[in-house]
Structure formats: structure tokens, C-alpha cells
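Running log. JK asked me to keep both predictions on one page so they can be read side by side. First protein, sequence followed by its C-alpha cells:
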Amino acid sequence: MQGTVATFDEANRDGTVLLDDGSLVRFSAAAFAASGLRLLRLGQRVRLEHGDGGDVIRVTLPTLP
């Protein structure tokens, strides 16, 4: 699932992503930490990976495997 970064809190390392269908999805600091990224910018395109429970478990860039 892909979308654009709507909010990102550099201090807490969490934020929200606006999906292509207009839904807003929150991601946790743990999901951001799993990405290996150091920073996100507003409007940046990202891919969300979900766990079995439906929670976002990783936020990555669409160009990364």
C-alpha cells in the first residue's frame, strides 16, 4: 500500500500517511525504526507494510526492496 507522508514528528519518529484512496493511516515509531530511514519529509512517497493484525510494521520508500 502506498501514499504520501502527511505528518512526521522528528522527535517522536511517528506520523501519518495519506493513502491514494484518501484514507489517513498512522504509523508508529517502531514502524519507522524498522525502515532503516533517518528522516521523512512531508509529501514524500512511501510504502506501508502491514502485519497480520493489520498494524503498520514498516515504512519504506517505494524504490527500496
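And the second, directly underneath as requested:
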Amino acid sequence: MSVFITLKNIDDPEKLGGVGVYYKVLRRYLSDGIAYVHFSDDNSFSPFKKFFYRMKDTVAFTRLCKRIRKSNHIIHFNPSLNWSGVLRDGLLLLIAALHGIKTIVFFRGWHSYMVHIIDRNRLVRTIFKSVYNRAHIFIVLSNDFKEKLHAWGFRQNMYIETTAVDNALLNGHNHNIPAHDKNQNVNILFLARVEKEKGVFEVIDSYQIIKQKYPNTRLTIAGDGSRLDEIKRIVETRNLPDVSFTGYVTNETKAQTLADGDIYFFPSYHGEGMPNSVLEAMAFGLPVITRPVGGLEDFFGNGRMGFITESKDPEKFARYIGSLIANPDLRRWMGEHNAAFARQHFLASVVAKRLERIYSDVLNNTVHERSWMKNL
């Protein structure tokens, strides 16, 4: 083996987070020289159980490091920039460094509260830097993330990457760009965790405005989450018609949900890295209305891929949605552009090749800064 990737069990679909989904869809396109180091999913554990399982994982990880210390291997970490991810993977990174093993840190979620703490607290910044300076390279999902790491004093080479769209998701839908040939029956799709920070309340408020002007518009909310029941009550209380809730969708059901959409609406203000649902919606030929979260800001063409705004104002979102409803030719043009762009850059088969090139750079000591956007 050459590369060991740390993550929670990707063979348990009920426990897959964003990182697990990413490697699950990449796995079939990565070489045989990749192994996965599975950690316990301790989010629902009591403090005592969480401590026990983390110590158990740490002991097992230390044994792995002792076993591979004299070989040319890489350990690839995938923390979010939050307290839990930074502390857990920081300890493991130190263990790997003590054994002289090459390491990659791929920051996934990027939480503004943690950025604020590191910016303002010199002691936290010093400790964070002293631990994570052991990494050979960083992979990030945004140019802003790269610049922030440089500002904190990291001098490692940075690779900018994306999340990935499962090729299999598009099976049978490769030429299914929506016709967008009428102003009626336009389906607005929100596909994400049903949480406040994902913008679901803004979705409902915007839809209420749009529904008054375009009565044949409908809204699909696909996903589950802690606010799902509350959102359902709001829809019922406001007597909003033509709102459907699919629950959590996967595989062909997810593909059909995306294929049935006309506009993808994702007004998130969560600590996103690269929202995978946006990339999937683009691959299915949907124009997107979103906010500049994570890596979206680096490549999203406002007025070309859809509309992107810093605003959280439902009135502004409704104007963008209305302009797409009223202009089916614009929807089709944006959809065709998005499908071609996403399938060129975001398919798992494409992302896997870029990731293996990064591994090759590290193993052969030929690292240098590179971005997937270099040739855009």
C-alpha cells in the first residue's frame, strides 16, 4: 500500500457524511494502492464512550504508524476546521510525524467561528500552527482557504480541489437536460440537510413570494434534518400549496429528483467546503441560485451558471428565481453550460485522477501548488 486515508466507515451508508460520500464515490476509480483507516463514529456517544473509542482508535493508529514507518507511504487526513476535527486529527498527525511518515491534510468543512478563534487568539494560532506544520502538503476547497492558511504562517504547498459527482448518478441521465420550454410547472429544488444554516427558511420565504406571481411553480425539499418537522408546520400554517417533501434520497431516487428539477436553490450560510449538491445539480443541467460559500466563489459564474449573492433576503432570491421562470431560454442555456462544465471538472472519475496525481507528487517529492481551476 502507498496511501492510507483516514475517515469513518464508508461501508455503512447510514453513517456517511460528506467525507465518506466523497471517498465512496472515488473508491472505484482509485488505484489498488489506496487503503482506508476507519475510525469510530462517536458523535452519538456519551463523553465516556467517546473518550474510550478515541483512545482505541489512537492505539490502533499508532500501531499502523509503527508498521509502515520505514516505507514510502502517505497518511491522508480529512479534518473539518472545527474543534473536534482539529483536535482529533492533530493528535494523529503528531503521531504520524513522530514516525517519519509523509502526511496530507485535506481540510473539508471550513467553519467561520474557528477561523475567528485562530485569527484572534495568538496561543491557539501558535498551537494550531505547531501541530499542523507537520503536514507535508495541504489540500483545500477554496482559494480563500489557501490564502488564510498562508496568512497564518503555513508555507507548505497548497492544492485546491473539489468534491465529486458520482458518475453512476448520471447513468441514464447523460442527455437529460431539462427542456425548459414553458413558464409553467417550474420545479424549484432544495436538496440538502434541512437545517437553518443551509438556508431552508429562506427557501420557504422566497417560495411564498414567487408562488404569488407564478402560481404554477412548485417546490421540492429533498433531505432530512432537525428542522424538517418545523418546516412542514410552517408550510401547513401558511397554507403553501405544491410543496413536496421527499425525505433523504440516494442513488436512483436522488438522480430522478435532480432530473425532475428546473432550478436548484441553495441559499446556505453554513461552513461549507464545496457544496456537493450544487455540483450535482449542475451536472444534471440545472441553473443554480446560491450564496458564495466555500469554493463556489472561486468558479461560479454569476449570470452564466445561475445567480450568486451575499444576500439572505428572500425578496432578492425571489427576483432571481422569477427571472429564470420568466426566461426559459436562459434556463436552458445555463443548464447546458452547467452540465458541460460539471461533467468536465467534477465527475468522480476526473477528480480521482487529480487526487492520484497529488499522491504521486508527494511520494516522488515533486510537490508544487496546483489548482483544478488552472485552465479555466
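Observation for JK regarding the second prediction: The chain has a mean pLDDT of 92.
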